[in-house]
Design goal:
By secondary structure, the chain is mainly α. The chain is built from 6 helices and no strands. It is globular, with a radius of gyration of 20 Å. Keywords: Membrane, Transmembrane, Transmembrane helix.
């Protein structure tokens, strides 16, 4: 299930590339079907990956239970917020402007992810974590039961 969900998610991410390669092709059946299903298929694939992890269909010590996922989960929202800024920066890279296939995008993807997560780490360390601790201390002083106590 993990492999199938991963393939489905990646095919939805990169399925838009034919439209970028041939922007003047107009309303084709492929574009219509892709536009109709990509959000649903991508969401279902991510839901499957999450359910595999939550409901314990993964074995202890497997790839999906590696500690790196816990670390990345804390940074994911910040990475989501900053990744478009990083992508915008990559739009001005000459190599990617001349790329005629998916290989340029695939080559840039790891670098975009690394830069986005590095920026996310900085924001987590200097914004989210301190504010989480501050909120936790404030809720303790006010004797308010809160979900923010997880930041201790």
């Amino acid at each position: 299930m993990v492999v199938g969900a991963t393939v489905a998610a990646l095919s939805m991410v990169f399925g838009i590339l034919p439209e970028y390669w041939n922007p003047d092709q107009g309303d084709t059946l492929y574009n219509t079907v892709y536009t109709a299903i990509f959000r649903t298929v991508f969401s279902a694939a991510i839901a499957c990956l999450i359910s595999v992890c939550v409901f314990g269909e993964t074995k202890e010590g497997s790839f999906m239970t590696a500690p790196i996922w816990s670390i990345l989960a804390k940074l994911t929202y910040w990475a989501y917020l900053v990744h478009m800024i990083v992508v915008y920066g990559f739009n001005h890279v000459e190599f990617l402007q001349q790329s005629e296939g998916a290989y340029g995008v695939l080559a840039a993807l790891p670098l975009v992810a690394i830069i986005s997560y590095a920026i996310a780490f900085v924001f987590f360390m200097f914004v989210e974590s301190p504010f989480g601790r501050l909120t936790s201390k404030l809720s303790e002083q006010l004797s308010v039961p809160s979900v923010y106590r997880q930041f201790k």
